[in-house]
Design brief:
single chain, about 425 residues, alpha+beta, D-Maltodextrin-Binding Protein, domain 2, 2 domains, 5-stranded mixed sheet, 3-stranded antiparallel sheet, globular
């Protein structure tokens, strides 16, 4: 799944070579490459997503220069990949023995490669700020008490709103900081626009399971849990999970005046067409609202981001987006590869990302971004972020749309109690089997 960014900067960087080098070799990424780094030799191939090429080529160049200075006899080959076909290319490369030594993975992709044995374990203690890594992001790299990749950067969902619509209806262009105040504001907006039956004060798509699961997390519930018997099982029928789902459904029913069965894929269009005052989405969706071609350029100054308040007086827990960096298990240069990852995720490198308004991988360097206007909304949503169950069958659960179908069934009249019970049964059939 493509992991989008909070902002876009920079120009394209030069890719260093286009070939990959990998075959059977060490399965550990923690052996010393050589007692004398200047005597180390060989080739290290790195696959980075083209986000780095477009947005922080200066960071890539600095790290590559640092690596070259430490290992002057090692050839570094950098290949930029696109999200649309990276997984297909990687699967083929792993099958034919031409996989890279280091690969960037969207954090929803990691478990597939961990379970298939494609990644080498790494030593968490050897990476900068690892004791302060954002927990949910680190969890995307952790399986059976081992670390299989390194958090690279984070992403978060935020409230996206039309400040002019809020100003006109409530007298303030600021997004409310508590849910109580938000609901009061949404009610005022609804009253202001009551003549337009298609206008949504909060456009919250019915099958939007990422949002529903955020409310589940806010109430202390979960999608599934790993039990003492060594198996995963669905927990949507648990009382706290049902509270979150019920709260989400209530918001959808009250404030979404569109088709409740439509998903969130193009939710920005509701605001772009003047049919919504706010929605909950990835930060980059705000740009689509006012972009020529996809939206209404006249909304450019009105569209703003804010932290979405949750029902418990805290920010709504967000699904943790972002990317990870992994060393492939069959690399002949696992130690050298791991050292490049150390350099690329060092405190200095993470600060370079933070300076470009990209959320770093750790809470220490995230802290200043919580008060920076351009990053506050996302940064404040991250500390309590959640992630999908790191279970063998999670991919099949997503593919079969169990959660969206559950939400749609509730909105069509099935009780929350029955729908969550049915969803847990479907989850239990799939979650422990590798997909």
């Amino acid at each position: 799944m493509k992991r989008q960014l909070i902002s876009t900067f920079g120009i394209a960087a030069l890719a260093i070579g286009m070939t990959a080098c990998s075959s059977s070799g060490s399965t550990s990424a923690d052996k010393s490459p050589a007692s004398d780094p200047k005597a180390a030799s060989g080739t290290v191939t790195v696959w980075l997503m083209d986000d780095a090429q477009k947005n922080w080529p200066d960071l890539v160049q600095r790290v590559n220069d640092e690596f070259a200075a430490k290992y002057p006899k090692v050839t570094l080959r950098l290949v930029y990949q696109g999200w649309a076909d990276k997984v297909t290319k990687l699967d083929k490369a792993l099958a034919d023995g031409s996989a890279p030594d280091v690969v960037e993975l969207g954090n929803t992709e990691t478990m597939k490669y961990v379970l298939s044995g494609a990644l080498a374990p790494v030593d968490r203690s050897s990476f900068d700020n690892s004791d302060a890594w954002i927990k949910a992001l680190a969890n995307t790299c952790t399986y059976q008490d081992k670390l299989w990749c390194v958090p690279y950067y984070a992403g978060a969902r935020v409230a996206i709103y039309n400040s002019a619509a809020f100003q006109q209806a409530t007298g303030s262009g600021e997004f409310p900081k508590t849910e109580t105040d938000l609901l009061a504001a949404l009610d005022r907006i609804a009253e202001k626009n009551k003549s337009d039956k298609s206008f949504s004060p909060l456009y919250m798509p019915g099958p939007y399971w990422y949002a529903a699961a955020s409310y589940v997390a806010a109430y202390g519930g979960s999608i599934a849990k790993f039990d003492s018997s060594g198996n995963w099982h669905g927990t949507l029928h648990d009382a706290k999970s049902q509270q979150g789902i019920s709260h989400f459904v209530d918001l959808v029913r009250k404030y979404n005046k569109g088709d409740l069965t439509v998903n969130e894929q193009n939710q920005y269009e509701a605001m772009a067409r003047g049919r919504a005052a706010s929605f909950y989405g990835n930060g980059y969706e705000a740009a689509s609202v006012a972009a020529p071609g996809t939206g209404d350029p006249s909304l450019k100054d009105a569209v703003k981001l804010a932290t979405m308040p949750g029902p418990d007086g805290k920010p709504l827990p967000t699904f943790i987006g972002g990317s990870d960096l992994a060393v492939t298990a069959k690399s002949q240069q696992t130690a050298l590869a791991a050292d490049w990852v150390r350099m690329f995720t060092s405190g200095k490198s993470q600060q370079a990302l933070a300076d470009k308004d990209i959320l770093p991988n750790n809470l220490t360097q995230l802290a200043p971004l919580k008060s920076k206007p351009s990053t506050a909304a996302a940064a404040n949503a991250v500390p309590d972020a959640w992630f999908t169950p790191l279970a063998p069958g999670w991919g099949a659960i997503e593919k079969q749309k169990i959660l969206p179908d559950m939400l749609t069934a509730i909105l069509k009249g099935k009780s929350v109690d029955q729908a969550t019970k049915d969803a847990d049964a479907a989850i239990d059939q799939l979650i422990n089997t590798q997909s």
